[in-house]
Amino acid sequence: MSTPAVKPIPEGMHTLTPHIIVAGAAEAIEFYKKAFNAVEQVRLPGPGGKLMHASLKIGDSTLMLVDEMPDCGGGASFGPKALKGTPVVLHLYVNDADATIAQAQAAGAKVTMPATDMFWGDRYGQVEDPFGHRWSVATHKRDVTPDEMKAAMEQMAQGRQ
Protein backbone atom coordinates (compact mmCIF):
# COMPACT_ATOMS: atom_id res chain seq x y z
CA MET A 1 0.00 0.00 0.00
CA SER A 2 1.46 3.35 -0.99
CA THR A 3 1.58 6.37 1.26
CA PRO A 4 -0.24 9.42 -0.10
CA ALA A 5 2.10 12.22 -1.16
CA VAL A 6 2.52 15.05 1.30
CA LYS A 7 1.12 18.30 -0.08
CA PRO A 8 3.76 21.04 -0.36
CA ILE A 9 1.18 23.56 0.88
CA PRO A 10 -0.81 22.11 3.79
CA GLU A 11 -4.57 21.80 3.53
CA GLY A 12 -6.31 25.03 4.50
CA MET A 13 -3.20 27.19 4.04
CA HIS A 14 -2.54 29.81 1.38
CA THR A 15 0.72 30.47 -0.43
CA LEU A 16 1.40 33.61 1.62
CA THR A 17 0.65 33.61 5.35
CA PRO A 18 1.43 36.49 7.71
CA HIS A 19 3.57 35.52 10.70
CA ILE A 20 3.77 38.32 13.25
CA ILE A 21 5.85 38.92 16.36
CA VAL A 22 3.94 40.18 19.39
CA ALA A 23 4.97 41.26 22.88
CA GLY A 24 2.30 39.30 24.74
CA ALA A 25 1.18 36.74 22.17
CA ALA A 26 -1.33 35.07 24.54
CA GLU A 27 -3.03 38.43 25.14
CA ALA A 28 -2.93 39.16 21.41
CA ILE A 29 -4.75 35.90 20.68
CA GLU A 30 -7.57 36.95 23.01
CA PHE A 31 -7.68 40.40 21.39
CA TYR A 32 -7.85 38.94 17.84
CA LYS A 33 -10.69 36.65 18.95
CA LYS A 34 -12.68 39.67 20.17
CA ALA A 35 -11.68 42.10 17.42
CA PHE A 36 -11.73 39.89 14.33
CA ASN A 37 -13.56 36.70 15.40
CA ALA A 38 -10.32 34.72 15.18
CA VAL A 39 -10.41 31.02 15.94
CA GLU A 40 -7.38 29.58 17.70
CA GLN A 41 -5.97 26.55 15.92
CA VAL A 42 -2.57 25.89 17.50
CA ARG A 43 -0.75 27.12 20.60
CA LEU A 44 2.74 25.87 21.43
CA PRO A 45 3.92 27.22 24.79
CA GLY A 46 7.63 27.54 25.40
CA PRO A 47 9.90 28.34 28.31
CA GLY A 48 9.01 31.19 30.64
CA GLY A 49 5.39 31.34 29.55
CA LYS A 50 6.26 32.60 26.06
CA LEU A 51 4.49 31.22 23.01
CA MET A 52 6.88 29.57 20.58
CA HIS A 53 4.15 29.43 17.91
CA ALA A 54 0.45 30.02 17.56
CA SER A 55 -1.91 29.85 14.64
CA LEU A 56 -5.29 31.55 14.27
CA LYS A 57 -7.93 31.40 11.57
CA ILE A 58 -9.46 34.75 10.59
CA GLY A 59 -12.05 34.29 7.87
CA ASP A 60 -10.52 31.88 5.38
CA SER A 61 -6.92 32.79 6.22
CA THR A 62 -4.32 31.82 8.78
CA LEU A 63 -2.37 34.26 10.95
CA MET A 64 0.69 32.85 12.68
CA LEU A 65 2.18 34.59 15.68
CA VAL A 66 4.93 34.21 18.22
CA ASP A 67 6.04 36.07 21.33
CA GLU A 68 8.87 38.57 21.18
CA MET A 69 12.18 36.89 21.91
CA PRO A 70 14.81 39.58 22.41
CA ASP A 71 17.28 37.21 24.04
CA CYS A 72 17.32 34.68 21.22
CA GLY A 73 20.86 35.43 20.02
CA GLY A 74 21.18 35.91 16.27
CA GLY A 75 17.50 35.09 15.84
CA ALA A 76 16.27 37.83 18.18
CA SER A 77 12.77 38.97 17.25
CA PHE A 78 10.93 42.09 18.25
CA GLY A 79 7.36 43.33 17.84
CA PRO A 80 6.34 46.76 16.55
CA LYS A 81 6.29 48.47 19.95
CA ALA A 82 9.93 47.54 20.64
CA LEU A 83 10.80 48.76 17.14
CA LYS A 84 8.77 51.97 17.64
CA GLY A 85 6.38 51.19 14.79
CA THR A 86 5.93 48.95 11.78
CA PRO A 87 5.99 49.51 8.02
CA VAL A 88 3.62 46.55 7.59
CA VAL A 89 -0.17 46.73 7.32
CA LEU A 90 -2.20 43.52 7.52
CA HIS A 91 -5.14 43.78 5.10
CA LEU A 92 -8.44 42.18 6.07
CA TYR A 93 -11.42 41.88 3.72
CA VAL A 94 -14.73 41.55 5.58
CA ASN A 95 -18.46 41.71 4.89
CA ASP A 96 -18.89 45.01 6.77
CA ALA A 97 -15.82 47.21 7.26
CA ASP A 98 -17.64 49.68 9.52
CA ALA A 99 -18.88 46.94 11.85
CA THR A 100 -15.48 45.22 11.99
CA ILE A 101 -13.70 48.50 12.75
CA ALA A 102 -16.23 49.22 15.51
CA GLN A 103 -15.75 45.68 16.90
CA ALA A 104 -11.95 46.07 16.85
CA GLN A 105 -12.23 49.46 18.56
CA ALA A 106 -14.49 47.99 21.25
CA ALA A 107 -11.87 45.26 21.79
CA GLY A 108 -9.14 47.89 22.30
CA ALA A 109 -7.86 48.90 18.85
CA LYS A 110 -7.21 52.53 17.98
CA VAL A 111 -8.97 53.74 14.83
CA THR A 112 -6.31 55.50 12.74
CA MET A 113 -8.50 55.97 9.66
CA PRO A 114 -12.29 55.72 9.80
CA ALA A 115 -13.95 53.65 7.07
CA THR A 116 -14.45 55.67 3.89
CA ASP A 117 -15.58 54.84 0.37
CA MET A 118 -12.41 54.76 -1.75
CA PHE A 119 -11.85 55.40 -5.44
CA TRP A 120 -10.70 51.82 -6.03
CA GLY A 121 -14.11 50.46 -5.02
CA ASP A 122 -13.60 49.47 -1.40
CA ARG A 123 -15.00 50.86 1.82
CA TYR A 124 -11.68 51.08 3.68
CA GLY A 125 -10.31 52.08 7.07
CA GLN A 126 -7.40 51.31 9.38
CA VAL A 127 -6.87 50.40 13.03
CA GLU A 128 -3.84 49.82 15.21
CA ASP A 129 -4.13 46.93 17.61
CA PRO A 130 -2.92 47.23 21.24
CA PHE A 131 0.30 45.43 20.27
CA GLY A 132 1.32 47.94 17.59
CA HIS A 133 0.25 46.02 14.49
CA ARG A 134 -1.61 48.02 11.85
CA TRP A 135 -4.65 46.54 10.12
CA SER A 136 -6.53 47.82 7.09
CA VAL A 137 -10.14 46.67 6.98
CA ALA A 138 -12.12 46.74 3.75
CA THR A 139 -15.36 45.70 2.11
CA HIS A 140 -15.37 45.61 -1.69
CA LYS A 141 -18.37 47.70 -2.78
CA ARG A 142 -17.93 48.14 -6.54
CA ASP A 143 -15.73 46.99 -9.37
CA VAL A 144 -13.62 49.72 -10.97
CA THR A 145 -11.88 49.45 -14.36
CA PRO A 146 -8.17 50.33 -14.58
CA ASP A 147 -9.07 53.46 -16.59
CA GLU A 148 -11.59 54.58 -13.94
CA MET A 149 -9.02 53.99 -11.21
CA LYS A 150 -6.34 55.95 -13.08
CA ALA A 151 -8.72 58.90 -13.63
CA ALA A 152 -9.76 58.85 -9.96
CA MET A 153 -6.12 58.78 -8.83
CA GLU A 154 -5.28 61.73 -11.11
CA GLN A 155 -8.27 63.66 -9.76
CA MET A 156 -7.23 62.90 -6.19
CA ALA A 157 -3.64 64.01 -6.89
CA GLN A 158 -4.88 67.32 -8.36
CA GLY A 159 -6.89 67.95 -5.22
CA ARG A 160 -3.72 67.65 -3.11
CA GLN A 161 -1.77 70.28 -5.06
Helix and strand layout, with pairings?
Layout: E1 19-22, H1 25-36, E2 39-45, E3 51-58, E4 61-67, E5 89-93, H2 97-107, E6 110-117, E7 122-128, E8 134-140, H3 146-160
Parallel strand pairs: 1-4, 5-8
Antiparallel strand pairs: 2-3, 3-4, 6-7, 7-8
Helix pairs in contact: 1-2
Describe, in plain words, how this protein is organized in 3D:
The protein has 161 residues and is of the alpha/beta class. It has a single domain (19-160), classed as 2,3-Dihydroxybiphenyl 1,2-Dioxygenase, domain 1. 24% of the residues lie in helices and 33% in strands. β6 (110-117) and β7 form a beta hairpin. The longest helix has 15 residues, at 146-160.
CATH architecture annotation name: Roll
Q: Secondary-structure element sequence?
A: EHEEEEHEEEH
Tell me the total number of β-strands: 8
The N- and C-terminal alpha carbons lie at a distance of 70 Å
Q: Give the full name of the CATH homologous superfamily.
A: 2,3-Dihydroxybiphenyl 1,2-Dioxygenase, domain 1
- How much helicity do the residues have? 10-25%
Q: What is the oligomer described by this structure?
A: single chain
What overall geometry do the principal axes of the alpha carbons give? globular
- Sheet of most strands: 4 strands, mixed
Q: How many H/I helical runs?
A: 3
Strand content: 25-35%
CATH-defined topology:
2,3-Dihydroxybiphenyl 1,2-Dioxygenase, domain 1
* Strands ordered across the widest β-sheet: 1-4-3-2
Concise synopsis of the structure shown:
The protein is of the alpha/beta class and 161 residues long. It contains three helices and eight strands, in the order βαββββαβββα.
